[in-house]
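A note from the maintainers: we've had questions about how concatenated examples are separated. There is no special marker in the raw files; a new sequence line simply starts the next protein. For clarity in this README we add a label.
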Amino acid sequence: MLLTITKYEQDKIIQALQVLADEYGKCADHCVTRLSDGFRDDERAIRNLEFRIANLTERVDDQEMNLEIGKFLAKGQKINAIKYVRQQRGWGLKGAKDYVDKQPGYEPPPSLASTSGDRFFEDLD
């Protein structure tokens, strides 16, 4: 027995296969997106775990930590000082920054709102 397909039926089959291919493409895109999101989540979890493991090391006392912070600040390495405090105490960024800012001898860099900036605008008048 021979199966005979009309032109209309052929067109319908081709159309159905195209719809199926489109849906397959959408499904594949969705899977790739989910996998890449999962990899990013895994990367964040690994970094968090590394940070927590690093903080399990023996911590120094306040006096020794303050000396080390002073060394960083003397070299103009405020960011490294903040990182050091975060590592030693497990604090967040704001807490560590505030601690470093309160260290004796720390001078914040001049801001744009300083008097030298005002003199610039006076010269323009």
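[label: protein 2]
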Amino acid sequence: MYNLVRFEGNIRKLETYEGKLNTLTNTGDSQIASSAILSTAAESISLGAQTFFLASKSRLHVQSVVMEVEGKICIGQFHRALLKENEYIVCVAKKIDTNLYELYSILSPKTGLLHMQVGMGGSVKKSHDSIVKGGRVWYLLGVVVIGVVLILGGDFDAENILSWGGVLFLFYFILFYILKNSFKSLKHFSEKSEEIFKLYRFDNPEEVFLLSGRHYSDDYKILLESVYEYRKVIKEDPYPESYIEQKERNV
């Protein structure tokens, strides 16, 4: 669908640059908001809290990389580039010019880390299901809050209950309208992610959802966006730690 290709080899001529990913684009706000909801759906308060923090800052600190892999010039942008010169990697990229490729993902058999562009990491089906689940969580929280307000206020007359019921009814449709449109704006991330999973030969790529495998960086003291310890989720790993040795033996 997106004409992506997979190739692998050692990193040569690695260069890293600091930069900012502006989230205030046409899809930026919905991307951050939906990511927070997905974090909640993954039952991790810390993930959701950090995502809201990133949203409040409006601009996400990222690192751009330029490297050569098997003679191919590769450029990409990730939340953090936890890569080293001469490291053996498996890439998925899009050819944008003669011998020039845009990196969509980088998998390292040695470290077990999978770098993906910010916003990626879940298949279409799983991302949709998680947004719906997250929406239900937020709605139930709203019900609880209103219930507490009614109990503390001690005002249980029919008119008051009907008024709050109307608020909840309206809140439900507004919330899921926002989520529906948010998912539409994010769907291309999920489509690209699913295509990447297929190229990596992950089992059941339409069922893959990597959010629970987000990597915590000891150097930066943060959970990284779309950098995953993918083996926490992918049990049948096509690229085990012995993958590089196997490749060398077969050469």
